[in-house]
Amino acid sequence: MRLFWLLMSALGGGLILLIANHDSGRVFGLENSAFAATLYLGLWAAVLIVGFLGSGLRIGDVARTLAFWVFLLLALVAAYQYRYELQDFASRVTAGLMPGSPMTTVSKNGQIHVIVERSSSGQFEVIADVNGTRLRMLIDTGASSMVLSDEDARAAGFEPERLRFVVPVATANGTTVVARARADTVNVGAISRNDIPIYMAQAGRLDQSLLGMSFINTLNGFDLRGDRIVLRD
């Protein structure tokens, strides 16, 4: 307790000096703001010193405890500083374990990049989220719209029986008709769109859902880089 009051007296004296020298702007050659910051840090240092000494712990135990908290603080600061690189690394690991998983990176200016690796079939397939349902879709820049297969449409909560298949479309296998609808949400990695037009294929007409230009046109752009396609938002 004697040490505590000595420290508090020293800090109190410093506070009085700070108030008394307010007009001059300096205390012991330091600017008032710097001297005030020193007093603030001194207060916390006094609390820590008295707390450790009053706990009865040995110096070695105190040193190990301080080292642990300093290491933890530095680790948190490092994680924050390299958060974008760590996010990119985590996305790459996920994509390697789950083919089709989009890799999301965020640049320092806040621009979102979603990277999709070419699949073993030679095409760009991505796991997208439509109305809260994860669907594997083919990124098709030749398709004017997003089109869901009958199976995927049902999984995403649509009821094809209640839709009108009256919109004619041309496909590689000839002309067919699809139904027009709207998706509440479509997410590809960190890229999210709401209330977006979407089409439903008739049963047996489409093997895999398509992520077409009606979604891609909402982006800032996209780049094809070898075995990767990068969607920029």
Automatic annotation (TrEMBL):
Transmembrane residue ranges: 39-59, 66-82
One Gene Ontology biological process: proteolysis
Gene Ontology MF terms in the entry: peptidase activity
Keyword field: Hydrolase, Membrane, Protease, Transmembrane, Transmembrane helix
Pfam family, one: gag-asp_proteas
UniProt superkingdom: Bacteria
NCBIfam families: clan_AA_DTGA
Protein name per Swiss-Prot or TrEMBL: TIGR02281 family clan AA aspartic protease
Organism: Nitratireductor kimnyeongensis
